Amino acid sequence: MQRRTFLGGVAVAGLAAPWLQAWSAVDMASAPVGLPLLASDLLPAGATLRELPKLANASSTPGHFQATLTAAPLTLPFIPGHASTEFWAYNDGLPGPLIELFEGDMVEITFINNLKQPSTIHWHGLPIPPDQDGNPHDPVPPGGRHTYRFNLPQGSAGTYWYHPHPHQYTAEQAFRGLAGPLLVRSREDPLAELPERLLVVSDLKLDRYAAIAPNDANDWMNGREGQFALVNAQHQPVLPFDAGGRERWRVWNACSARYLQLALPGSTLTLVGTDGGLLEAPQPVQREYLLAPAQRIELIVDAGSLRDRIELNANIYPRGKMGDVSPDKAMSLLTVDFTAVRATAVAALPGRLGSVADLGPVTAHKQVVFSEKMNMANGSHRMQFLINDQEYDMGRVDLVSKVNEVELWEIVNRSDMDHPFHLHGTQFQVVERELGGVITPAPFRAWQDTVNLRSNEIVRIKTVQRWSGLRMFHCHILEHEATGMMGQLKVV
Ligand code: C2O
Ligand code: CU
């Protein structure tokens, strides 16, 4: 009976076939591994980092944001001397345009789908009602359009993003270019005076003809990683650091599966914000910061005595990849040019940035278990990634919560690989982590919508949902999400 509620639409029923087809054992097992890719030095590097173009507000009413986002193929001469590359993009831009909003805004964004596949726009991390959140159950068909409407509550200032979430096509649409940054600003931002840099990191895999390569079997198993990690769609650009010696960076990990073990040797990095906004107090970063797929951070970067050019690196992070994969290499994301820095001293950061109030006493509990299983049916060797022993089923409710009830979720990773857990529609608080029987309380409270789990790790979070309806939770390695590592929470 439950089923009817979610399988009601004609469009949804029509999606069943491609979903099965796309990750059938045959398809994945026969996907060739190791086809030659374009040599990574063929993509020019070293241009000055560009600013992200903004999505213009068509409304002149204060507190109202109105705009249109069109998803369509975009053909660019990306590699000199090669055929053009076909991306799929929002408003002909890579990444999608920056959507800059304020707390309290009423937002109205019309999505026009000029792709040949159904799509939706999911507002990753935003506290908005489920029927406006681009669920797979509300697809916009090819040639169709849909207006999303939501209000941004006070306290929602933070660093978000948007990307497609249609049943079964999310991974492909994202790796072809459909993803963009979204900022919610507060009118009282203690760090508003600082020069701000927005750095959207995305992944790109091009075949030797400069076309976007399809997923191979290793991509389906470990998550897709191409030969390029781009920043604002540029290859290893140069960031001219502010003469004042201090910048506020917001960094998005918009990659399908790449973990970013961020390091900027010699600089002083201070964490001031996570996915859902500022921390209560600045936290020094020791050497490296791990930004898992889908996560965002706000950092204060101090040049200190640096006056030269330093690379921002994504260092090696062993995440338990399986199969016959080549060893990971550290990657340079961009070069920070500190040569213009003139300041000899910077002021102390504010000791207090705001409040991250405890969500309060817990009155319900849930458990989510990630696992993996080799499926040998029909002679195939397909790795299955499961949540609570099941693959995703659009017509099944996996968990039920009550509106406004504070819950403790225990997320358990009983698999050999790291997985970033993401829950829609809310910002949660990590309470503690457990690994090898050792419990480590979260060192400070922070708003997050995505949390990484190492192999065999347990993470406990406090979370609450404010609207009734259906929410997704899933691994944000998009190939895992696509092949079934997703569940549904019904909020009543
Ligand atoms: Cu960013 Cu369900 O996703
Ligand atoms: Cu995963």
TrEMBL record:
Alphabetical keyword list: Metal-binding, Oxidoreductase, Signal
Superkingdom of the source species: Bacteria
Location of the Plastocyanin-like domain: 81-188, 215-303, 373-491
Segments passing through the bilayer: none
One Gene Ontology CC term in the entry: outer membrane-bounded periplasmic space
Gene Ontology molecular function: copper ion binding; oxidoreductase activity
Pfam family, one: Cu-oxidase_3
Record SUPFAM superfamilies: Cupredoxins
Signal peptide: 1-24
InterPro entries linked to this entry: Cu-oxidase-like_N, Cu-oxidase_2nd, Cu-oxidase_C, Cu-oxidase_fam, Cu_oxidase_Cu_BS, Cupredoxin
PANTHER family: MULTI-COPPER OXIDASE (PTHR11709), MULTICOPPER OXIDASE LPR1 (PTHR11709:SF2)
Name of the protein this chain belongs to: Copper oxidase
Organism annotation: Pseudomonas arsenicoxydans
